[in-house]
Design goal:
Layout lengths: L10 H49 L6 E3 L7 E3 L5 H11 L8 E2 L3 E2 L8 H4 L15 E4 L10 E6 L5 H8 L7 E2 L2 E11 L3 H14 L2 E7 L5 H15 L5 E6 L2 E3 L1 H11 L9 E3 L1 E2 L27 E2 L3 E5 H10 L9 H13 L3 E3 L7 E2 L14 E3 L9 H11 L4
Parallel strand pairs: 6-8, 6-10, 8-9, 12-16, 17-18
Antiparallel strand pairs: 1-2, 3-4, 5-9, 7-8, 10-15, 11-18, 12-15, 13-14
Helix pairs in contact: 6-8, 6-9, 8-9
């Protein structure tokens, strides 16, 4: 009996079978990979959504390190320290807040950036102080601006912050003359219900003759009243000043640099339409309800503000202060003072902003912002308590930079 010979496959058939097997392996691999990839993508997308939600939640309470590039002025840095809560709120205030166009009264829908309509839908201009300018003063040094005044500096100060006022008087506030120019420095305060504090203010004013105190309660939401009060005081008691500088009491002003800059800009001080500041651009109201800067849609129904100056310091020629003072009669009160005066009122008055030159805008007062670097800035900011430790050294460096003493 013959043995059966194994069946041999043709060469072509072998190749065909190998190709089919390879194709099956590829298809299987793609199916498995696609299934894994979709699952992985779902996991990644879910992770991303969770991460974004975490970021949104965390950023509403804590400030991230932030740098501002778009103003054409100096760079701004924010970092976490013991005042992290304040920094968080400050950063939220500076971030652009997104919202949809809203429907306001009469069922009219306004474009989200059409802030010109603020004047149409907010036309209640009967505020006794901000609109009608019926200011009264508890303390008033009406003769502080005797003679020619090159620049009058109005410092917004809390009644309780006598230590901050003393620090200013002991440093940059003591400079009354430079390069033939007269500088007048005044502190703007409002009313306090603390009798002991009020008594100290009275003594302080009699000693230094540099306090103006309005008859309205000093509070965060009354800063606009204080801001317009400054214009009222200049109009009535310092009308001869060439320039007006508004600053906060946590700001150190290199008055030597300031006067030199202004004299270079205009030796006789006769320039017009000059509102010099570090402007916020494309910013909008805060929509976080737990923020002290929260603004409801009823208060401001648009996504964006007009360009407005950062509140730490802004410089104006007298024609600008006159225009702002006049225009404030016709712009409804809005409690955020820098937005109100240098944004809405400036828009109403047809005033444009001049961006601070690089280096003029403030630096936070710390080890990196004083020393040699102090030569390039006009404003140093002691915004947080830790910055206060550098105040005296910063002023020594200012004096050294100008070869004084």
């Amino acid at each position: 009996m013959k043995a059966t010979r194994p069946c041999k496959l043709s060469h072509r058939l072998k190749i065909y079978m190998l190709l089919c097997a390879a194709a099956c392996m590829i298809l299987l691999n793609q199916t498995v990979f696609s299934s894994w990839h979709e699952t992985k993508n779902d996991d990644i997308n879910l992770h991303h959504e969770q991460t974004k939600e975490d970021v949104r939640r965390i950023s509403s309470h804590f400030a991230s390190f932030q740098r501002k590039f778009d103003t054409g002025g100096a760079d701004y840095y924010y970092g976490m320290d013991e005042d992290s809560k304040s920094i968080s709120e400050d950063t939220i205030h500076k971030e652009t807040q997104l919202s949809e166009a809203v429907t306001v009264k009469d069922n009219k829908v306004y474009p989200e950036n059409d802030f010109h309509n603020y004047f149409k839908i907010n036309n209640k201009t009967d505020h006794e102080l901000v609109n009608k300018h019926r200011y009264q003063y508890i303390v008033n040094n009406k003769y502080a601006c005797n003679g020619d005044v090159f620049v009058v500096i109005l410092i917004h100060s809390d009644p309780k912050k006598d230590n901050e006022r003393k620090a200013i008087r002991d440093t940059w506030g003591a400079v009354n003359f430079h390069s033939g120019a007269t500088i007048v420095t005044m502190f703007l305060l409002a009313e306090t219900d603390d009798k002991n504090v009020q008594e100290k203010i009275k003594v302080e004013s009699e000693t230094y003759l540099d306090i103006v105190q309005g008859k309205f309660l000093d509070s965060y939401k009354n800063l606009t009243i204080k801001c317009v009060m400054g214009l009222h005081w200049v109009e009535n008691f310092c009308a001869q000043a060439k320039f007006v500088l508004k600053v906060d009491d946590d700001t150190m002003v290199d008055v030597y640099h300031l006067v030199d800059f202004l004299l270079h800009k205009s030796p006789d001080g006769n320039i017009d339409n000059f509102l010099y500041c570090s402007p916020y651009k494309n910013q909008g109201p805060v929509k976080y309800t737990d923020s002290k800067w929260f603004v409801s849609k009823k208060e401001y129904p648009f996504e964006k503000y007009p360009h407005y100056c950062e509140g730490f310091a802004f410089l104006m020629t007298r024609d600008v202060t006159k225009k702002l003072y006049k225009a404030s009669r016709n712009v409804q009160f809005y409690w955020i003072d820098d937005v109100y005066l240098t944004g809405l009122v400036a828009l109403k008055a047809g005033i444009t902003h001049h961006d601070m030159e690089r280096g003029h805008a403030y630096s936070l007062m710390d080890a990196d912002a004083i020393g040699e670097n102090v030569k390039s800035v006009i404003f140093l900011l002691a915004k947080y308590s830790s910055n206060r430790n550098f105040w005296d050294q910063a002023w020594k460096d200012v004096l050294h930079a100008h070869k004084i003493r």
